[in-house]
């Protein structure tokens, strides 16, 4: 069966599905929401198959919001994070949940694993679930993706990241560009390093592009060059840091210092360097980014740029609930949370 969606830009409705499948709207409703149906009249498998095929062809999305009474709230919000196992996100999630509980809301948490397809899957889930808003930490979602979600649901959204520029999405971000520059500049000015490498995740992530750009600028401003082999790209894991520092220290002329794009990467690099009998910081200095709890537990303690995810989570949630509760309906607000460099033993 091949069907053409309505030519107008309006949203596909249950009536469109019923008309295309040549069944009643109540039949469509019973097939899509069997748990809520009180009818005991059976529906044939042929009819179910036809309706579901039409739903797929037309791209129909059940509108849970329209099922709620006008003005009624569902008391649920969604939260998309990149990696629930990364301790950086734990204070942020806790802060969002704490604010949500003040308004008697529950939080549905989804993990994207830094994958675009999982971020899009979360958006599709929000289209089907009766939620009033969402907190996003998007690594791949574009402003167009957010616009599509808002246009189809009308929900409030707040997001992390200076790259988000949607006119109706409130944004909380850390000034990691400035902080990255200052960390590398500190290695040059206060520790005398000239051969500095960088270990990072993929450059396809906006956050990595910002931190890498700041690293390069700090080096250029000091009149220092960065050999291509001094920049090692991997992922956000401890193991990635271990692999990267191993390759850097194997170079004929290795760097004397490394700026890592996250603490998890830096901790892996620190561990591997010491296993290879390099002294930290005498032979290789290491700086991380985030100031996760483990940064002050490892030995030597990790020099790092601190972000404040708990404060960021509180700002995200408060901005979201101001929109959900109708206390603010204006254009996007942008909240910058300053970073702070902690000089510890690793550099």
What does the secondary structure layout of this molecule look like, with pairings?
Blueprint: H1 14-21, H2 25-32, H3 45-58, H4 64-67, E1 76-81, H5 90-102, E2 106-111, H6 116-128, E3 133-136, H7 143-153, E4 156-160, E5 170-174, H8 176-191, E6 196-200, H9 206-221, E7 231-233, H10 238-249, E8 257-260, H11 263-275, E9 285-290, E10 303-306, H12 309-324, E11 334-337, E12 340-342
Parallel strand pairs: 1-2, 1-3, 3-4, 4-5, 5-11, 6-7, 6-8, 8-9, 9-10
Antiparallel strand pairs: 10-12
Helix pairs in contact: 1-2, 1-3, 5-12, 6-7, 8-9, 10-11
Overall description:
The radius of gyration is 25 Å and the shape is elongated. Helix 11 links the parallel strand 8 and strand 9 (285-290). Helix 1 packs across helix 3 (45-58), helix 8 packs parallel to helix 9 and helix 10 (238-249) crosses helix 11 (263-275). Strands 2-1-3-4-5-11 form a 6-stranded parallel β-sheet, sandwiched between helices. It has a 6-stranded mixed β-sheet with strand order 7-6-8-9-10-12, sandwiched between helices. By secondary structure, it is α/β, with parallel strands linked by helices. It contains 12 helices and 12 strands. The protein has 3 domains: 14-60, 434 Repressor (Amino-terminal Domain), CATH 1.10.260; 74-174 and 309-339, Response regulator (Rossmann fold); 177-307, Rossmann fold (3-Layer(aba) Sandwich). The mean pLDDT is 90. Helices cover 41% and strands 16% of the residues.
């Amino acid at each position: 069966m091949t069907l053409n969606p309505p030519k107008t830009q309006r949203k596909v409705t249950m009536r469109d599905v019923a008309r295309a499948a040549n069944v009643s709207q109540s039949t469509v409703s019973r097939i899509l929401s069997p748990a809520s149906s009180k009818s005991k009249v059976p529906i044939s498998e042929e009819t179910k198959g036809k309706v579901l095929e039409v739903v797929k062809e037309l791209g129909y999305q059940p509108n849970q919001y329209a099922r709620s009474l006008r003005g009624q709230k569902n008391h649920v919000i969604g939260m998309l994070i990149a990696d629930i196992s990364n301790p950086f996100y734990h204070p942020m999630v806790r802060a969002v949940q704490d604010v949500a509980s003040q308004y008697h809301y529950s939080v549905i948490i989804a993990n994207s694993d830094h994958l675009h397809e999982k971020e899009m899957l979360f958006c599709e889930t929000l289209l089907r679930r009766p939620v009033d808003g969402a907190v996003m930490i998007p690594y791949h979602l574009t402003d167009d993706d957010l616009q599509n979600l808002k246009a189809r649901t009308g929900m409030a959204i707040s997001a992390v990241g200076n790259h988000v520029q949607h006119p109706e999405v409130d944004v909380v971000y850390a000034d990691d560009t400035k902080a990255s520059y200052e960390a590398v500049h500190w290695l040059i000015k206060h520790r005398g390093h000239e051969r500095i490498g960088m270990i990072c995740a993929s450059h396809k992530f906006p956050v990595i592009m910002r931190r890498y750009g700041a690293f390069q600028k700090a080096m250029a401003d000091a009149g220092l060059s960065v050999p291509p082999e001094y920049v090692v790209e991997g992922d956000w894991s401890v193991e990635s840091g271990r692999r990267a520092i191993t390759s850097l220290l194997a170079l004929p002329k290795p760097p004397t210092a490394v700026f890592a794009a996250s603490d998890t990467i830096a901790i892996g690099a620190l561990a591997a360097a010491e296993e290879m009998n390099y002294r930290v910081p005498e032979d290789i200095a290491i700086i991380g980014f985030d100031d996760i709890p483990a940064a002050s537990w490892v030995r030597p303690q990790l020099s790092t740029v601190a972000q404040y995810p708990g404060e960021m989570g509180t700002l995200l949630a408060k901005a979201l609930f101001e929109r959900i509760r109708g206390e603010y309906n204006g254009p996007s607000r942008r909240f910058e949370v300053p970073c702070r460099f902690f000089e510890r033993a690793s550099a």
